[in-house]
Amino acid sequence: MLKNKTALVTGSTSGIGLGIAKSLAAQGAHLILNGFGDASGPMAEVKAAASAAGHDIQVLFHAADMSQPHQIADMMAFATAQRGQVDILVNNAGIQYVAPVQDFPNEKWDAILAINLSSAFHTTKLALPAMLKANWGRIINVASAHGLVGSAEKAAYVAAKHGIVGLTKVVALETATSGVTCNAICPGWVLTPLVQKQVDARAAANHWTNAQATQELLAEKEPSLQFTTPEELGALTVFFCSPGANNTRGVAWAMDGGWTAQ
Ligand code: NAD
Predict the structure, then answer these.
(1) Are residues 207 and 105 in the same domain?
(2) Residue 254 forms beta bridges with which residues?
(3) pLDDT of residue 194
(4) Which are the catalytic amino acids?
(5) 145: CA distance to ligand 1 center in Å?
(6) What's the pLDDT tens digit per position in 71-80?
(7) Quick one: which atom of ligand 1 is closest to the CA of 228?
(8) How many domains does the chain have?
(9) Considering the domain boundaries, does residue 1 fall inside one?
(10) By CB neighbour count within 10 A (0-12 exposed, 13-18 middle, 19+ buried), where does 15 fall?
């Protein structure tokens, strides 16, 4: 379905971003990955996901630090030089830090706002002109249930995720009469390194096993008592890229096991 399209997924060396990249690759899109760490494993996984579906795609990587606007500009210029343009932009890179407001380190606030929110402004600003010229484009922002509701001790994360839901709505309105759409995905708990750290912290604080801490984490917020998976989030991303979603604009789509239905 996405043959000859180019998708750029930020923060795709791990977790949700990698899952989304694999789902897009399985639809035949060329991929530009981004993130920290050794990219050779993730690049091979994405290539394999495409091959398994009968597609021979190009997989590229750019290591831009998404907290740095000049590195983001370099990544977008790289994408244009290598692939002509970005057709599908998935703003996914994100970090977490947990502390009460009065103890929240200023540098953590700045980093979370820069990576989880401002980076999406910078990539969108740079990707949009070519999408509008082609009259086709998909911008998908990975927000969170925390883009819709709050939780204690997550001031920066909740502020950034509410912010990216707002950015999604504005970009959707500004592109509403074009073939470009912008939507947000709001996952509940997904068992990635970002969440495993929170499970580990609960286990340590309460002298629980990993299984007990996992159970408590789910029970506190997620009525389904199940993690959302990167594959499910990839399937929603593919839907947003499909013709069936041509007029789906500015939504913040929860995939959270009922978290925000409460
Ligand atoms: P993860 O830690 O597994 O992956 C994060 C990715 O972002 C990695 O590839 C990492 O290298 C990259 N990254 C981090 N800082 C970066 C930076 N400065 N520049 C470039 N890349 C950077 O986390 P995840 O759980 O897959 O999270 C992905 C997104 O999903 C985040 O935006 C997160 O807020 C969101 N999310 C996660 C959950 C969850 O339960 N895991 C729930 C809702 C939303």
Answers:
(1) no
(2) 186
(3) 87
(4) 157
(5) 14
(6) 999 999 999 9
(7) 40
(8) 2
(9) no
(10) buried
